[in-house]
Automatic annotation (TrEMBL):
It comes from the Eukaryota. It comes from Mesembrinibis cayennensis. This is GOLI4 protein. Keywords: Coiled coil. GO terms for cellular component: Golgi membrane. Residues 5-60, 90-142 form a coiled coil.
Amino acid sequence: GVFMYSHLQQKVRNAEALAQKYKQQQEALSAQLQVVYEHRSRLERSLQKERGEHKKTKEDFLVYKLEAQEALNKEKQDSMNRYGALSSQHKILKNQHEDVKKQLLDLQLQHNSLKLEHRKTLETHSQKYAQLQQEKDSEVANLQDTVFKLREESKLLRKAHQEVHSQLLSAQ
């Protein structure tokens, strides 16, 4: 009975030691579980915060994307308007250029025609001038001849006048 009692007491001590060991392990595991729960709680809060920031970032991005799209569309519209204006101005300038080219061609033709007319007029005037020069020279020669004859005649008339005057003086 003593042996049995001693054996049972030994078993009870072993069981108490084992229970104590299990209790310590449970407390350690409980403490570790508490740490894990706290860590999980912090991670969940951090995840919620990250989700909130992600949602806000996503919303901000969508707003930015919308604004960028609107700005791009406005820029595209402005560019199309500028292109239209420049294209229209280009057509006008091209037409003006064609008109100026046509005017230049007309003026060149007119200039060539006037040059030809001027050359003909110059030749005509040169011929007339030569003819008038010839007529003048001929007339001058005739007038010199007439002057020479008139001088001769004047000399003769003076001589005759002198003789008549001499005769008159002799008669007196």
